[in-house]
């Protein structure tokens, strides 16, 4: 039997801590050096964190966040159930890191047809955890310290911080609105790039341009002519194009979504980003993908294998079956890609009428889930605050959710800091909602109108 001689090890270690200036009561050594990496400086704030909390606390109707409150199509849910409860137990395990083989094969077949390219599923397609991770992989793979990345405003808010985290410098160019004639409602098509202004943003430091068509938040669908201007500048300056096309199937009024990679000289320099969440109304599944030439995608694979590495197998299997169905029905009335935009266009038109009736001037979107409305007529409800650092639309949106129970997102959130106050009298609504949700929103707006008429 061993006898304990002298002080215990615990006592000895505590004595050493105390002699080094540590507190034996806390049992912890406090660090004095900075712990935050410099690449995180200035990007800690996030509009979604703030407004999701506000919506959860105050709203009775949430038209802020961009997700449907209706279910995915039955065929997709049934595919998920089959994958989950079927006899193939390997669907519960890891699959290929860069994409479940059935999914990359059908994506290559489907998008090869659309792009007029013979795509290799193993080298021209990579599956990601939603389009968000696809974007992250692009910026990490392509952007070096000091590289400039052109971002078209208004832009989905993650583009700017992702460029900065990669060490790049965002360069912003705005879509500028042109007032329509004859008192008509403005369309997202009325927001256009100035070709000369866009050209002035390209330089020898430019590494890439981010294109989002259809555009979130405006709903703008870039025309062939507009895309050709961008493509010509990319070719002239040898610049990459990161093409965020997650709303590719959600276009209205007979508009056509044109893929910039299909234009002359663009396939070899473009990464296309897609999303099953937006394609099949299943945003919580977080299945996205990139399509492009191997010379670009091989670098995305390097980022992917050293970060996320793998995406949920069962969800990929279900999405693969969804695309297999849609390939057979492509262009036919039964296709979900035909039915969904028809349904959403009706919802869009209904919300346009509701907003217009109360004095908010909607900008008619050509695509996406979203509709932007001008709130200039409501300044009597929420007076301006001179010299405020917070954009007016942000204060208005907060007031609206707290006092009216209706959640929306300020358009200024989709601009860089220097430009936020240039477009601060608009808010963004999501109309990809059940009829009951849109009716509840209309009831709030009508009540608000009556209160304004009879104060």
Notes on the structure:
There is one protein chain. With 455 residues, the protein is α/β, with parallel strands linked by helices. It has 2 domains: 45-70 and 335-453, Alpha-Beta Complex (Aspartate Aminotransferase, domain 1); 74-329, Type I PLP-dependent aspartate aminotransferase-like (Major domain) (Aspartate Aminotransferase, domain 2, 3-Layer(aba) Sandwich). It is 39% helix and 13% strand. The protein is built from 14 helices and 15 strands. The protein has helices at residues 9-19, 47-58, 74-85, 101-115, 130-142, 159-165, 195-200, 224-237, 276-279, 294-305, 313-328, 336-358, 392-403, 435-453, and strands at 61-62, 125-128, 148-153, 169-174, 176-177, 191-192, 206-212, 240-244, 270-275, 288-291, 361-363, 370-374, 406-407, 409-410, 426-430. A 7-stranded mixed β-sheet has the order 2-10-9-8-7-3-4, sandwiched between helices. Strands 11-12-15-14 form a 4-stranded antiparallel β-sheet, covered by helices on one side. Strands 1-13 form a two-stranded parallel sheet. Helix 6 links the parallel strand 3 and strand 4 (169-174). Helix 2 (47-58) packs parallel to helix 13 and helix 5 (130-142) packs parallel to helix 6. The radius of gyration is 25 Å and the shape is globular. Keywords: Aminotransferase, Cytoplasm, Lyase, Pyridoxal phosphate, Transferase. Pathway: Amino-acid degradation; L-kynurenine degradation; kynurenate from L-kynurenine: step 1/2. Residues 61-441 form the Aminotransferase class I/classII large domain. Its EC number is 2.6.1.64, 2.6.1.7, 4.4.1.13. It catalyses: L-kynurenine + 2-oxoglutarate = kynurenate + L-glutamate + H2O; an S-substituted L-cysteine + H2O = a thiol + pyruvate + NH4(+); 3-phenylpyruvate + L-glutamine = 2-oxoglutaramate + L-phenylalanine.
């Amino acid at each position: 039997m061993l006898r304990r001689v002298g002080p215990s090890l615990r006592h000895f270690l505590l004595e050493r801590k105390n002699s080094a200036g540590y507190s034996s009561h806390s049992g912890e050594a406090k660090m004095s050096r900075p712990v935050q990496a410099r690449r995180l400086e200035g990007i800690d704030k996030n509009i979604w964190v703030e407004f999701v909390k506000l919506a959860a606390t105050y709203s009775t109707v949430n038209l802020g966040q961009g997700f449907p409150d209706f279910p995915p199509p039955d065929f997709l849910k049934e595919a998920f159930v089959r994958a989950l409860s079927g006899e193939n137990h390997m669907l519960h395990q890891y699959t290929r890191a860069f994409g479940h083989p059935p999914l990359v094969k059908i994506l290559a077949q489907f998008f090869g047809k659309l792009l007029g390219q013979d795509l290799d599923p193993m080298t021209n397609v990579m599956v990601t955890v939603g389009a968000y991770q696809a974007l992250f992989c692009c910026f990490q793979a392509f952007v070096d310290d000091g590289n400039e990345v052109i971002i078209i405003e208004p832009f989905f808010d993650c583009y700017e911080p992702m460029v900065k985290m990669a060490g790049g410098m965002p360069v912003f160019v705005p879509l500028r609105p042109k007032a329509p004639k004859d008192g008509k409602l403005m369309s997202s098509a009325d927001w256009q790039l100035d070709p000369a202004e866009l050209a002035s943003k390209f330089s020898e430091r430019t590494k890439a341009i981010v294109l989002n068509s259809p555009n979130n938040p405006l709903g703008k669908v870039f025309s062939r002519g507009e895309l050709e201007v961008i493509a010509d500048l990319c070719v002239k300056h040898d610049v990459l194009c990161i093409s965020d096309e997650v709303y590719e199937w959600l276009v209205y009024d007979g508009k056509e979504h044109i893929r910039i990679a299909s234009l002359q000289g663009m396939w070899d320099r473009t990464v296309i980003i897609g999303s099953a969440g937006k394609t099949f109304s299943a945003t919580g599944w977080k299945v996205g993908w990139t399509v492009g030439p191997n010379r670009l995608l091989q670098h995305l694979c390097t980022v992917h294998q050293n970060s996320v590495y793998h995406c949920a197998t069962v969800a990929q299997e279900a999405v693969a079956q969804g695309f297999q169905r849609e390939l057979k029905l492509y262009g036919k009335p039964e296709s979900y890609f035909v039915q969904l935009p028809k349904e959403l266009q009706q919802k869009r038109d209904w919300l346009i009428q509701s907003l217009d009736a109360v004095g908010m001037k909607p900008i008619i979107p050509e695509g996406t889930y979203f509709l932007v409305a001008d709130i200039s007529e409501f300044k009597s409800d929420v007076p301006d605050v001179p010299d405020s650092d917070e954009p007016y639309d942000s204060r208005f949106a907060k007031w609206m959710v707290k006092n009216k129970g209706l959640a929306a997102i300020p358009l200024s959130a989709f601009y860089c800091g220097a430009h936020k106050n240039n477009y601060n009298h608009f808010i963004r609504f999501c109309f990809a909602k059940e009829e009951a949700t849109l009716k509840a929103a209309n009831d709030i707006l009508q009540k608000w109108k009556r209160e304004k008429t009879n104060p």
